[in-house]
Each structure stands twice: as structure tokens, then as C-alpha cells.
Amino acid sequence: MVTRSGVAGAAGAEGRVVARFNAPRAARVEANANGTPLDVNHRAVALVREEWRVDDRWWTEEPVARRYFELVLESGENTVVFHDGASGGWYIQRGA
Amino acid sequence: MCSCRTYVPVIACLSIPGLELKAALLRTPTLALRPAALAPEPQGEPLIGPVTAAAEAAGVRPGMRLGEALATCPSLVLVEPDAAGAERAWEEIVRSLEDAGFSVETALLGVAYFETRGVERLYGGLEPALRRALVAVGTEWDARIGAAGRRFAALAAASVARPGQTVVVADEELPQFLAPLPLTLLPLERNRYEELEALGVRKLGQLAGLPGGAVAERLGPDGRRAWGLARGGVAARVRGRRPPAAVAASLEFPEAVGNELTLRRALAGLVDTALAHPERRDRFVRKVALAARLESGGSWRRTLTLRDATADPDRIRVALAPRLAELPAPVVELRLELVELTEPTGHQLELLAAGAEDRTRLRDGLRQVRASTGSGSVCTVVEVAPWSRVPESRALLVPKDE
Questions:
Q1: Where residue B253 sits, what CATH number does that domain have?
Q2: What is the pTM of this model?
Q3: What is the pLDDT of residues B23-46, one digit of tens each?
Q4: Could you tell me if B230 and B252 lie in one domain?
Q5: Under an 8 A CB cutoff, do B343 and A76 touch?
Q6: Structural domain boundaries of chain A?
Q7: CATH code, domain with B195
Q8: Distance of alpha carbon B43 from alpha carbon B328, whole angstroms
Q9: Is the confidence metric ipTM above 0.95 for this complex?
Q10: How many whole angstroms separate alpha carbon B211 and alpha carbon B218?
Q11: Interface size, chain A vs chain B, as Cβ–Cβ contacts under 8 Å
């Protein structure tokens, strides 16, 4: 997905590519009827700070259709989760 | 005593239509009997807010364009919005419910959900508990309550209840109950309603009868969600809120102030006063609200959630100061509320402060890690497409063996 010519060149100059930075990790999210998260990995959501959509690469065979939420959990931790429209799964992601 | 009945949790929805108007009319109660409407927001579209029963009888509808409303009813009185007053009134209502033993989740101004499970035995059943909730709210707000096994159904039941009435919908009656209700109950954008009406779909039952896949294809995820709600929605649990902190500071000006510099100075003083409040102690501020009483008689209020909880007055000032430019009129009173405070552990600290000494230590540490774990264990972040909207495409982790 990220192996474009520029990417391969940058990676080749530095060494072997091991991972994508800020790759999403699967999360267990309980959401309400509107799709707003209420619980992330068994930790309750205190408030939703922001919500936005990312629709990209619709011209490829791997389109990206995500609904992101920036959340504050009851523990005080900030976290960003998204609902993937293609797989229907929830993911936690840093750097969003 | 043992009951053989399987208990199905009931979700109740308290609805107070036109709460903003009712709160604004507290200052001039005589207007409640005349054609009156909440004036449009000063910097928003010229659409009127909720209207009184007399205005509705004269043909004025909430959300109408101001010009059209005045043409329909020339005697229509416009009431200045009192956002801070409405917030305060709503907070009092929610607290009254909480004092009666209900755990309340607020959805928006004038709509709240609560479960009755914990208090049914206390009040002698579901209906007495709902009546107790109405008593707690009081009669002056024309509150109504709907109850059902699902959240959306509870909202729909509240929307058909008359003031002071409770409507309970059993699960088996749900499809018949929802079918004749209008689509406007669904959380859809205005053009979506029009699209559905153009297709001949005007009632929830008609939408629920369509195939889900076809609705999703035509209207996208929002339409699919609306279709799910038209069929009753899901039985999501009610999550009681955490009551807001009661730390506030206010400043009354001898005469109305419109000068931003003066307001900034006043804000600085308020931030210091609020942070010094003994209730705050060693907690950090997560959410603040800035409210003002305006010279014109109305009020203004903005809430702000801070990215990082903080007790640094400068950071709070910097975050709030731009909001002062949004004030629509000179101010006679400025008020700062610390709405949400964290526990001391809620503050996320920086792992390493930037500095030459720290960087040298870090480099030494990384060298030791590399020596003990082998090549490829220490990576560096290489930006490859920083412009990408997909976060994981912006950078790669590349081994740094030096």
C-alpha cells in the first residue's frame, strides 16, 4: 500500500523497512446507535473531543473509508480510534 | 420474594422541546402566551429557534427563515437567546433527576436518557418511577417521558407524549408504534429528508420496510443507520454522566465592555481566581466554559475541551482568548467555569524533555540496547508521505544500525 517509488527509495537509502509507523491496531469498541464509541478495550469513554472522516484511495482496489474519533477515556487518557468502513472493524491509531 | 419474570431493562427518555425558548422566557413570562420565537443566533443563519404555542397556531414553525416567519405572523416577538441561562436550567433539571436516584446521560440540551432498573423497587414499579422523574423535573418545563427497551424507541415515545405524560412502549408493539411516525425523528441532514420524501418515503414504517442494502447504496452510511433506527435501533446501555465540577469565577463590570483587551485582562483574572479555588486542589482542568451576560439582555456561552489537562493559567488563557472575539455584543458579566477536572493521575507527562544532555543520554542508551539486542532492534522514523491523509502511510520505521 505504501510501496511507491519515492517510498522505496527512502527506505532503501536507510535500510530494511520493518513496519509502518503508527499502523492501526485492532480494538474492542462498544458504540451507540449513532456509531459513537462508548467503551474502548473495556475502558469507558468520558468524552468525544472530535470526529472526522477519511475517505481516500477510492480509485484503487483498497479504498480507505474511516470514521475517526478523538476520545478522552475515563482514566484521563487521550486516544484516537476509527471505524473501518471496509472491514467493519474498530482500530486504535496513534498520529491521526 | 422471587419473581419468575425475566427483567428487560427499560430506557427512558426525558424530552423538553424548546428548552432554550422556555429558559429565555423566564425573564419575560408574559410572552409565553403570545406569538414569540427564539431569535436567530447573531452570527448564524437567519433561522428562528423554537416557537410558542400561539406562534405555532399562527403558522410559524421552528427553523423557519426570519423573513418568512415575520411575514406569516407580523406580531411575532423575537426573544433574545439566553444560552448560558438555558445551560444552567438544563443542569438544574438533570441534577434534580440525579437527586431522585436516576443515573442520567445527557444527549443534548433538552434530551436525556436514564434507566429505571435501579429505582423501580424504590418507587414501586416502572410507571411510578417515571412519574417520580416528571415530578423531579417540575411542571414549568412541559417535560414528557418516553420509555422502551431501545434508546431510539424511547426518544420516539417521548416525542409523541403530551406535556407531563409518560408513554411506555413494549418491545412487541415497537414496529406498529414506530411505523406511522415522521422521518424527522431520525438524525438525518435536511437534504436527506427531502431525498426520501422525493422517493415517496415519509414515515418510519415505510423506511423500515425497504431492504437495508438498497438504503445503504442510495443514502450511504447515514441512511443505513437511519434505516436501523426506523426498525427500532439497538438496545445500547445508558451511561450515567459524571456530575460537572462546581468551580466557577465571575466578574461583573460597572458598565458594558466590548474592548477585547479589557476582556482579555478580565479573563486572565478569572483564570487565576478559578484555579486558586480550594475545590480544585491538585486536580487538572480538562474542560472549561466561558459565559457572558450581554448588554442586550441575552447571554453567550462557549465550552472548550483542552487537548491536555492542565493547571497552567497561561495555557488556559491562550486556549480561551480567541473565543472572546466571538462575543456578539458588549458584556456586563464574564464568567469562567471549570466544567471538568481530572484526578492528578489524569495528567500525561512528557517522557523526555528536549535538551542536549538528554539527547546524549538517549544516544548512549540506544547504543547499549543495540549492543545487547542486536542489529535491527533500534529503528528510526522516516517520513515518506507526510501529506497523506492515511496516518500509517506518512512514515516508516527503518532499522538504524549506527
A1: 3.30.1490.100
A2: 0.59
A3: 888 878 888 888 999 888 777 788
A4: no
A5: yes
A6: 22-92
A7: 3.30.70.270
A8: 8
A9: no
A10: 11
A11: 124
